[in-house]
Design goal:
mainly alpha; about 0% strand; about 100 residues
């Protein structure tokens, strides 16, 4: 359950980064343009780490700390979200530009 929770927290943080723009790539619209979002993501990860690695909080939430190997697996499951969203944005821009070309 701890790995699943960590994957969900990471995926949602990456989804938040991808939601900076509906159609623009993260390469064109860098995340640091919205520092409040970066702060919120960092706070979210910090609180998640507090829950995982503070014994009292871990017992309250009934979770166990993750090892470095488990964190690598978490990121391997989570990072493809960025790639998938970037592909979807690319095709959305492509279809949008084709629609505009047909109108002209």
């Amino acid at each position: 359950m701890c790995m699943a929770l960590s994957v969900l927290v990471t995926i949602e943080a990456l989804n938040a980064l991808n939601s900076l723009s509906e159609n623009q790539s993260l390469l064109v619209m860098p995340p640091w343009r919205n520092m409040w979002l970066i702060y919120a993501i960092l706070l979210s990860f910090f609180l998640h780490l507090v829950i995982l690695y503070t014994p009292f909080m871990a017992s309250v939430f009934q979770v166990t700390p993750l090892t470095s190997t488990q964190w690598i697996v978490v990121f391997k499951f989570s990072v493809p979200v960025i790639l998938l969203d970037e592909c979807l944005k690319f095709f959305a821009r492509l279809l949008s530009s084709q629609g505009k070309a047909k109108q002209d």
